[in-house]
Amino acid sequence: MTFRVLTGLFGHESNAFSKLPTSLLNFENYLLAFGDDVPAKIEGAKIEPAGVEEAAAEYGWDLVRTVVAWATPSGPVARDAWDTCAGAILEAAMSKGPFDGVLINLHGAMATVDYDDAEGELLKQLRAVIGPDVPVAITLDLHANVTDLMTEHADIICAYRTYPHIDQIETSRRAAAVLQRTMKGEVKPVAVTARRDTIEGLDDGRTTTDNPMTTLLNRATDLELADPGVLMVSIHAGFTPANLYEAGPTVSVTGDGSDDRFRAIADEYMDYAWETRHFDSNTYLSVDETIGELHRLLADGTGKGPIVVADFSDNPGSGAYGDSTLLLEGLIQTDLQNACFGTICDADSAAKLVSAGEGATVTVNLGGKTDPAFGAPLELTGTVTRVTDGTYVAQGPRWKGVTHHLGPTAVFKVGGMEIVVASNRIQLTEVEAFTHAGIDPRERDVVVVKSMQHFRAAFAPLAREILICDAGALSTKDISKLPFTRLRRPIFPLDLD
Predict the structure, then answer these.
(1) What Å distances lie between residue 193 and 55, 117, 148, 361, 430, CA to CA?
(2) Cα–Cα dist 464/297, whole Å
(3) Which of 197, 337, 353, 362 is most buried, judging by how many CB atoms fall within 10 Å of its CB?
């Protein structure tokens, strides 16, 4: 029998405290395609829809494609993007059914200007169209804030199991396997979700070290193998800068039928997350501490591979602005040599540098344009060493096969520091962000990336040492600075020990 399956990707990690709106243009600048244009758009890309395509080919599904849409994290999604992308899914649900099943790729931490829980709202509206009996499988980012509304309207919940996220295809394949069994009548999945009074935990979901997250993931894998009634255990570290009542870590268990033991499993896993909530595998350095560590390491010699510095608190991947100058200013003042910095998002400065052309000596006020509280613009004089259109195909592992668009881009050399000045905000996860502009990070002594964790997939194999700098920008570890108004209280770590 051929099953007809509705599918689509609509993903955004929305920072409720960002000043930057997320319009349809932001999706167009990253990843956006509709209907029959989807396969060509995602060809070669290691993202969730590619896993759906693989599963459809294996199972012989009649796949109804709606949209693939992704944008760099920033403020809540604007109505034009919601109406277009959610609208594509809902319109297809109304006009192209009936369906035997649904497999939708979401993030799990999307907010819009109208809905704090945008994915819950999308699933509710979708369920109203397709009815209560069509099985709905959703894939989620490991940093999803899984709400009761999402759980109510999804039968199968399946999140990534890696951070850096490099298992998107596998995640879709795991969800598809359970959906296929459901459509064949072999199982009747029911999802339950548990949470505790915490907005942090599970070591922020990192899977590059032994920690509470990897412990639970290993337990989940063993349980799924040992208990045929447990169809899926999905573990989510949550997304902190969300002004959402239910934000924070959760565990969702998809079981075969309704059984109290599935809720007990979710509760047991969340009890462990609560008990280990203080665990953090990172050491966070101030700007001065970062510079001190750089001097200590460089005193031991150069040419030993790059010291990679993560500009943690200005990570565009968590909705920060990507133009904070707090760390950059300290590094320039210390006169580092053979160093590169990626990226500063400053369209005005990029335009000036590109216009001046390669070889020109230019003075610009760099960075700090979005919110000078996170570092005022720096008046810098340097040389334009390279001009590019900012386009490259990521080689991964994080975004393998996806084309990134930094927009008009220039390499601006100030002293011994080569700064990649870009027009568009993108988390620096790929070596190609440097190499496309003529910089080989393998040959540098210091490489600075605006990223929290995803950079590790590509840069950890190259790194002599990794330093994490929390300079105090929008995505600082100190979340007491965030003006939560809708989050449930009391909650750890804001109110509870």
Answers:
(1) 26, 15, 7, 58, 34
(2) 9
(3) 353
Q: How many CB atoms lie within 10 A of CB 124?
A: 15
How does pLDDT run across 198-236, given as a tens digit for each residue? 999 999 999 999 999 999 999 999 999 999 999 999 999
In angstroms, how far is CA 55 from the centroid of its own chain? 24
pLDDT recorded at residue 40 = 96
476: alpha, beta or left, given left = phi > 0 and alpha = psi -120 to 50? beta
Contact indicator for 17, 7 with CB cutoff of 8 Å:
no
pLDDT, residue 274, reads: 98
**292 sits in which H/E element:** helix 287-299
Alpha-carbon span 437 to 448, nearest angstrom: 15
pLDDT digits (tens, 9 = 90+) for 450-496: 999 999 999 999 999 999 999 999 999 999 999 999 999 999 999 99
The structure tokens listed for 317 are 């991947």
Q: Tell me the CA distances in angstroms from 238 to 30, 103, 166, 484, one per residue in order.
A: 23, 22, 18, 15
Tokens for 470, please give them. 């929390």
CA angle 363, 367, 368 (to 5 degrees): 130
Percent of the chain's residues with pLDDT above 90? 99
Residue 497 tokens, joined = 């020990």
pLDDT at 1: 83
What's 377's DSSP letter? Answer: P
pLDDT digits (tens, 9 = 90+) for 273-330: 999 999 999 999 999 999 999 999 999 999 999 999 999 999 999 999 999 999 999 9
Own/partner contacts of 258-263, CB < 8 Å, gap of 24 or more, are 258/190, 259/229, 261/229, 262/190, 262/192, 262/229, 262/230, 263/192, 263/194
Structure tokens at 344: 């500063």
For residue 73, whether the previous peptide bond is cis, meaning omega lies within 30 degrees of 0, is no
Q: What is residue 252's predicted lDDT score, i.e. its pLDDT?
A: 98
pTM for the full model?
A: 0.96
Q: Could you give the strand order of the β-sheet that contains 378-388, starting from the edge strand earlier in sequence? A: 284-285, 465-469, 307-311, 446-449, 339-345, 417-422, 409-414, 378-388, 361-366
Q: How far apart are CA 293 and CA 469, in angstroms?
A: 11
How big is the chain, counted in residues?
A: 497
For the CA atoms of 78, 80, 81, 87, the dihedral, rounded to the nearest 10 degrees, stands at 130
**Average model confidence (pLDDT) across the chain:** 97
